[in-house]
Amino acid sequence: MAIRTTRSIGMMLLGIWLILTGITTFATLPVPAVLMAALALIAGVLIIVGM
């Protein structure tokens, strides 16, 4: 079974954001809120633009 990766930068960043959000919820890692907000904003803009 092969794993297919997405070619969309926006979807890739969204996936990273979701993974980091899940990890910080379970493991209480100190990820700065500014970093999470910036990652979510960039992913959202790229998804809307269609990249």
Shape: flat
Q: How many strand units?
A: 0
Mean pLDDT over the full residue set: 77
Largest sheet: none
Structural class by helix and strand composition: mainly alpha
Measured distance between first and last alpha carbons: 27 Å
Order of helices and strands: HH
Tally of distinct domains: 1
Helix content: over 70%
Q: Count the helices. How many?
A: 2
Low-confidence stretches: none
- The fraction of residues assigned to DSSP E strands is under 5%
Q: Over the alpha carbons, how many angstroms does the gyration radius reach?
A: 12 Å
Describe this protein's structure.
- This protein starts with 8 loop residues before the first helix and ends with a helix.
- With 51 residues, it is mainly alpha-helical.
- The chain has one domain.
- The relative contact order is 0.24.
- The protein has 2 helices and no strands.
- The radius of gyration is 12 Å and the shape is flat.
Supply the key terms.
51 residues, mainly alpha, 2 helices, 0% strand
Helices and strands in order, then pairings?
Blueprint: H1 9-27, H2 33-49
Concise account of the structure shown:
With 51 residues, the protein is mostly helical. Helix content is 71%, strand content 0%. The protein has one domain (9-49).
